[in-house]
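Archive entry: two folds, one per protein. Generate the first.
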Amino acid sequence: MTTTTLAVLVPLLPFLGAVAGLLLGRVAPGFVRPLAILPTLAAAAFAIAVAVRQGGGDGKAPLDAATQLTPTGSVPIDLALYIDGFAALVAVLVGVVASCVQIYSTGYLRGDARYPSYAALVSLFTSAMLLVVYSGDLMVLLVGWEIMGICSYFLVGHYWETPEARAASLKAFLVTKLGDVPFLIGLFALASDAGTFRITGVLKTVADGGLDHPTLIALLLLAGVAGKSAQFPLHTWLPDAMAGPTPVSALIHAATMVAAGIYFVARLLPVFAASAAALVVLAAMAAITMVGSALAALAQDDIKRVLAYSTIGQLGYMSGALAVGDRGAAVFHLIAHGAFKALLFLGAGVIIHAAGTNSLAAMSRMRGLSQRIPDAYWTVTVALLALAAIPPFAGFFSKESVLVAAEHTALGESGGAAPGAAGWTVLIAGLLTALLTAAYAARLWLLTFRGRGSEVPDYGKQPLSMNAVLWVLAIPSIGLGLAIGSLPGWFDGHSLAPNLTTSVLGTGIALAGGLITYGCWRHTSALAARNPIGAVVPHPDTEPALAEREAIEIHTQVYGSIAGAPDPADPARLLLGPLHRHAAAGFHLDAVYHRLFVRPVLAAAQLVRFLDREVIDTYVRGAGTGTGWLGAAVRRAQTGNVQTYLSALLAGSVVLAIAAVLVAAGA
């Protein structure tokens, strides 16, 4: 089988699995799980085969194949593949994580009546992301981009009975669409300047200096990237999207949706590098995103919201690497982050089921959770160490590659187009975020696994399908850093190895953040026994998905907020001081957007409604009423009496004759 055929099958198989699952979900429910798992596993295997054939630094040219999709009369649209080392490795990540999610979901949603549609949507989601990764034409890429948006709407709203899920799905859809409007305009502007939608043609035009409006195009495209990859100021949808099932959160955060925007910029980095202003904007966006999301993560009580803000911050690192012109570091961190973040979310699903709550405040008052779920305990510990960038875990090497790239740009050693200001911005923000990341990772681990209080209730053992994938994902979380020497051959050839300065500085800052948090926890943990707090837990026989759904509903009822909890024993309150209240609310950006955008839109809608009902409808009703009155008047003359009609005809004739005589006499 040729490499091109294998590459075509990679996105096609999950798509066919999704279609078959939707068609057979009710007719033959026994086929739903095989149709969810087997096509995705096969796609992952084929993606690995494509990667083995295409990458590795042996000088092989990227796979570039195309056929015209449809004649347009102007800029053609091609069904094209363009697979280089970046695309090959990202496709492997998507396939592996999606396979783990599908396997995990068979246990997590084992009793869910809507599992057939859920599994089909996950397969379609996977297919759309793989289409984005492999596509060599921007219009075809846009198809996958938009399919992911609608899939996220349905999957985040899976528990549509709850108001949190309904609001979160609508918010995710609208915020990402807000970014997609300028993104679409930017794509058309780019194709207009380049004369093609083909990625190879666009890159050739950029290399020849043929872009007439590089800054405008780059900024328009960045708006779409900010929405899709949850970067400031369009990041607010991602924490609320935690109202969806945990496996969906793992897929969105690790391998699809939010990864798409970062991958798009990496794919078209020369377009953005053609404008120094765009790179500075990207660096500023990354810096604000990194620091702000890390502070917010430190103040959250919902374990999944901590991880959601963590994802936003790690995406900020990737954006920062792109802002300094190193897409190899960005994609390396994308892949490493995909492994340990999928592990963290799937582990969080096990934790929520075992504890019966998603609240860290409640977990901090439970003893023995680590003994109850040893698989999740050890694997989540590994993933948190990778997240905190502690050597020798994967996150250390990938995050250091970003810091090294920022350092080289700041010192003018990169030789690229990125300005030094972008380098300093990313470097300083990256080091500060490393401190905060270690702090919230340590807080999550301490509150979850070192709780003090009554013994955690026994809610039964988690299914093997849930625990097994945790260990699968733990392998790259531990060992991906060992590939540091071979990855440059897959990318641009630039070294990704850490240097002594950033390694010592970054690791020291991370250790300091963890130790400071531990000290605060030791100081505040004694308050936990004197301040009982917690949520009502579901029935011991509740399946994992239902336990999560009930936990989401109960959290707001018990604590008054989906995000925070009034817990005096939380070490984050001591760490953040008066900033804690604002960080827990995401620095009130939702309230700001509500005042700046939602209220004016609602007021405009009310005005339009008034004009429609009281003005336009008045004219419409008036026209109808006038016609009715005229008809009533005319109807009175229709008596049915022939003599009356003849008399009226004679009278009219006489009037006309008199009028004619008068006119003739006057003439």
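Generate the second and append.
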Amino acid sequence: MAVPPTQPTRAVAAEPTGLARALRAPSALDVVLGTLVAVTLPLAIVALPNTISVVSALLPRDISPIGMMRAHGLALPATVLTVPLAALAVRRRRVAPMLVAGLALLAVADAAGGYADSTSLVGVLRVLHGVGAGLVVPATLAAVWERSPFLRALWCAVLAVSLLAAQALALWPLDEARSWRVALQPYPMLTGVALVLAAAYFVLRLRDDGTRRSDDARRPDGARGFDDARKPGGGQETGGDRGYDGDRETDGEPGGPARSAAWAPGRGRPLMAVVPAAGIAALALGSTYDWSPGLLLIAATLSIVALFGLASASVSGGVDGRVSAYTVLVMGVVVLPTAAQVTNVELSGLGGPGLSGLWPAFVIAGAAAVVAAVAVGRLSEAVLPTAAASGMAVVVAGLCAVEVLLPSSASPVLVLPLVLLAVGAAVALTSALRPSGIGAALFALSLFFPGVLSGFLLGSGVQFLVLRGAGTPEALVDAFVDALHRWALVGGGLVIVVIVLGALLVRRSQPSVNDAPRPSAPDPFPASSEVPGAPRSGTAGITEVPEEAPGDVFRDGWPSTTGSRGAPARAGEPGAGPGAETEAEMGAEPGRKEGGEPGGPRPGSKPRFEPVPEPGPKPWPRPERTGTMPVVPPPTPSPEDTDGPGRP
């Protein structure tokens, strides 16, 4: 017997699978991304405070200090306007190029800051700072979204610490500055490092995408690798740092596969935040033109109310989405303005330990915030609403500590309020953003920065109201301390309102015990819309049939044309009448006629229950009705009358 020659097998190198594949490129990508988050988020938040007043004495005589303060304060309004647009773009394009673009704008603004010589140029550079920061923050959030939960928790912790230390980080380079231009380029070297990290992340992202595409091409149809299985949404691309190619469009449109539910546009509408953001930015610019404290307080209060209204109206996902948006918004309103006032009061010129005495407390607070955020990231989603409320309660405790313990010239005393503020903000942000989809998270971020600007307006209104009667340096220092204490009370009250509002919404969304549906007893009389002859639970052996429905042994004295169980009898079978085949050919239902004639249901008949006859020989019929027709037994066909199966 001839045997065909065997083909030589080619050795194929086995690719790493399982944990080995997961730890190959993604581990390097996660390390670079985590480092990038730790560097870029503080760099973006540091660009927001207006610190030109500290070096106003170094300004040239031909430059107005008031005009320079207005120009230097354009960074935060520019960020407020940029974040909603960036949040909208980050869901349609790749994240890495946007991240590189934002850091490039920051680097250009820092480099050109050394050559600024006019108020208009300073205004342009500060707008570039704001736009760059507005691109970086949403891009980093989207980049960590599809990665590990640790990176999400790290992002929230770094944001909380950045809010707490932003004012101190912005003032540190100005402590011994000899030029006012230092305020325009506080950390140029750190900006360069962040740009290099962003370029490395871009390269690793492209390599990871190429590896993923090649693996998918070699993989059989329908198979999924480990990387696909570990993605949210069961292997569907969810965006994040993977982003979207230009030919990929929105949900289900031509140009790419449908996005997962987490990226659905309905989860949050960042574009709707543009209009209130523009209004709040205009209010911030107008407040620099000699607004009265009362008018400033009214404008700030209306801005905060409008933001909460927008959070209520534009977030889908029910109560959980609204509570998450409220939490992120109130953290923006309270944390950064509070930390800025605490830093200003604790400067050495006002009796505090100075910036050198603040850094130990900031370091301890930052480490505690990271640990707390990572711990919350490991909790189950069922307890996250409670964790968010607990984080806000810790923030309230920190504000109470500010009220009681500050100002203080001892550095250890500062640890408690700063740790409470950092840990509470990290826990609240992590608990609020973790269960949200990326659309809802970006929308909450779009409300966050307008909240920061509204908080600054409200805090400035409180300060102006208190400082209005200070005439001596001692009275000025006391007025700053009094303004800090009043602001702590206002911020704490606002956080408590959000806690109570969230608890009420969650309680109203839960069904009460009395509203729970109770099991009802089975209905002995089924609805007439049900199919006749269908057995019901609890009625074994009983079939619902009309009074004159097929299945009766006799109807009006004539034999039935249905089988033993109510089904139409076929031609050639026992019990098949002469009209069975004719009715089937004519398209009528066998055994049923019109006008109440024999063989059809009588008009107005009601359903009743009849036992289903068991298969077997038909019993001798007994008359059920009286009439002119004699009662005769049903004809029994003889086997000799048929030539074959199915032939009468």
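Annotation attached to the second fold: The radius of gyration is 38 Å. The chain has a mean pLDDT of 75.
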